[in-house]
Amino acid sequence: MSTLEYVQYYFSWLWGEVRDFLLVANTPTQKFTVMAVVIVLFIAVMGLLLWLVDRPKRARNWLVATVFAGPAVLLVCFGLVYPAISTTKGSFYDKRGQAFVGFDNYVRAFTDSDFQIVLRNTVVWVVLVPLLSTIIGLVYAVLVDRTRFEKAAKTLVFLPMAISMVGASVIWKFVYEYRGGGNRQIGLMNQVLVWLGLEPQQFLINAPLNTLFLIAVMVWIQAGFAMTILSASIKAIPDDIVEAARLDGLGGFGMFRYITVPSIRPALVVVLTTIAMATLKVFDIVRTMTAGNFGTSVVANEFYTQSFKFNDKGMGAALAVILFILIIPLIVYNVRQMRKVEEIR
Amino acid sequence: MSTRKSTVAVSAIAASLLLALGACAPDPEANPTTGTGGSAAPTGEVKAGCEDYAVYGDLSGKTVSVYTSIVEVEQADQEESYDQFEECTGATIEYEGSREFEAQLPIRIEAGNAPDIAYLPQPGLLKTLVTNYPGKVIPASEGTAANVDKFFSPSWKDYGTVDDTFYAAPLGANMKSFVWYNPSLFKDKGYAIPTTWDEMLTLTDKITADFSGTDTKAWCAGIESGDATGWPATDWVEDVMLRTAGPEVYDQWVSHDIPFNDPQVVAALDAVGDILKDPTRVNGGFGDVKTIATQAWNSAGTPVLPAAEGETPKCVLHRAANFYQTNWPTGTTVAEDGDVFAFYLPGKTADDKPVLGGGEFVAAFRDAPEVAAFQAFLASDTWANAKAKATEGGGWVSANSGLDVNNLATDFDKLAASVLGDKNSVIRFDASDLMPAEVGAGSFWREMVKFFAEDKSSQDVADAIEKTWP
């Protein structure tokens, strides 16, 4: 064996060992080593890039921009743009993603009565959740502002934010639990109804009202978020404006209508759109409480069900695209609003 | 200057590392198979208690990951049944149970993160996986096939076979044709165990008359099961299909030789509705017909027991599988003279004995000796008996003929095993588990929920399911 052959053999062996070690990580030690290797690689690559950019005394702007934004743009392309394109393409194909079917999936999504209910529910969610959460949060923030119990009262409303969606759903499922006839109630809501001398209700089954009872869970979680942000911006309203308005004879509702709301408008828009986006993606609540049964499914849940339970990749992709299109106007509005605020500054 | 120095230092370190590694490089002339450790010959002497495990060889340092839908309560027994295997072979079994198993497994396979072994609760899922992900499911190893040939009847092997390739070995078995009842209530009221379907309907009417004006109903049911809501209702339909249409039609229904909305299927749905959609007959302890859709299946039988000492139970009959045994509250005695017991859901005549069964199948996703060994172990009589002993609370049986009935924990399990082994029983596999996943784990479940929650008619339900058949 010549030296050259040996060197060749040696490097192929070395590469094989390293590759096996890195790719077939089974023990925690191996996994941590892989993690360390990746971190070191990341630091090395970033360090090299930064060092290269710094090298020439007068770096060109485009070079600096490429090096700094390049990795992020690449990752966005890989993690967002590519899946978006491939999903859009998949939505024009059949169940198995093999035969081209044109707009069939979309036609089904908008004409099939089951899917129409899904779309209707999504609209109801997106309209009601942001409005209710924001109104409740705003009114609450104004009411408790500068009172003695402000901190305690705010904590109470904010607490649900700390609970996961699934956790909250499980809690509310118990609250809505129903026992018929003369059987003892075990759900809070129905026990209250019984105490009031009313008939117990099957909150999760009776469509279309059951969607509203699911929405209540989301509002319960999001109102705390709205309250916190809005309360902070109410506190940021300059005292001189408030004082001037008071001297001009404004009070109570007038103060709220003409001073508070206009002053916190940017914060209101941010809260509304953020909650709307979170609502469009709502999945956990529906899935945990009804699994999309009883006419309560929403697009995000139905997309999952179609893709992974019914193995209908095309329909799942079409629903994902619909969700994507629904969310675009919200994001555009949000970005525009942010630009406007920046222009004022 | 300092940069140059550090460059030199780095090169030196790198060079010495390469050299050090070089010292570890195997001699290129040597036989590449030696020294890999896995193929070491069995070492003559075997540890005490390991005699049955010697055949699996030395698997020290190897790990087999298992992904299943079997979670708490039974999970502990499952893990315990591998202890001896781990001890004797040195392998490590990493068990992961998930309630979202059916939905997550395809995602994991697609993501290249498949488990080594998965317990598929439905042969239909095996078929879907083999068709949709070619090459991902590894055909059963020789050892596994040999064990299955030795210990299981051919029909069980068929359920683990797709297109003439045998993939998955049966694991546990379950028997769904049981009706749970309260023996002391039966004694007080003088009810007899029905031996035909008509006798059971007569008994139902008698119970309804005896308890009219009270909250007690003849039947109770619940089909809520999270992601899999609806499956207990499909079992009802299948059990009734076997009785109203017979096993031959049942097979045609499963293989789609007759459409799902065939009049005989609609008739079976009507027969289910005759009991479960009659507000005078259901839903004992929970309320009206609709509550069947929201009641969790694993506590749906609870009203068969009195809510408190001396109270009348709210429900008399609850049709559920043998594995419901583990769902009774702790302290419940399952015995013919205890708190609850079950009778065989009768056939059309006393001689008809159709049995609806089900079970899990062990599929492998990695081609490695330790995975093959573990798969073979799970198909052996060694494992079946180890599992029987580990399941101290009862509620587990297997169709493995090497299973010693005396190792089973309870009288009820022995009864289930004897029905399973009875040559007169006509055993049919759970239809929804055999149908394509879109139907068997999709529209069939979903439409049965509508059957109860929205009072959708039998014909509409059957039509809607037929439409989704791929």
Give descriptors for this structure.
heterodimer, A: 345 residues, mainly alpha, MetI-like fold, 15 helices, B: 470 residues, alpha/beta, D-Maltodextrin-Binding Protein, domain 2, 2 domains, six-stranded mixed beta sheet, four-stranded mixed beta sheet, globular, signal (chain B)
Description:
The complex is a heterodimer of chains A (345) and B (470). Chain A starts with a helix and ends with a helix. Chain A folds into two domains: 3-90, no CATH class; 105-344, MetI-like (MetI-like fold, Orthogonal Bundle). With 345 residues, chain A is mostly helical. The model of chain A has no long low-confidence stretch (mean pLDDT 86). Chain A has helices spanning 3-23, 28-54, 61-90, 104-111, 113-144, 150-158, 165-176, 188-195, 209-235, 239-247, 253-263, 265-280, 284-289, 299-309, 313-344. In chain A, helix 3 runs antiparallel to helix 15 (313-344), helix 5 runs parallel beside helix 9 (209-235) and helix 12 (265-280) runs antiparallel to helix 15 (313-344). Chain B has 470 residues and is α/β, with parallel strands linked by helices. Chain B has two domains: 56-174 and 358-420, Periplasmic binding protein-like II (D-Maltodextrin-Binding Protein, domain 2, 3-Layer(aba) Sandwich), CATH 3.40.190; 178-356 and 430-468, 3-Layer(aba) Sandwich (D-Maltodextrin-Binding Protein, domain 2). In chain B, 42% of the residues lie in helices and 12% in strands. Chain B has 19 helices and twelve strands. At the A-B interface, helix 1 and helix 14 of A face helix 1, helix 4, helix 13 and helix 18 of B.
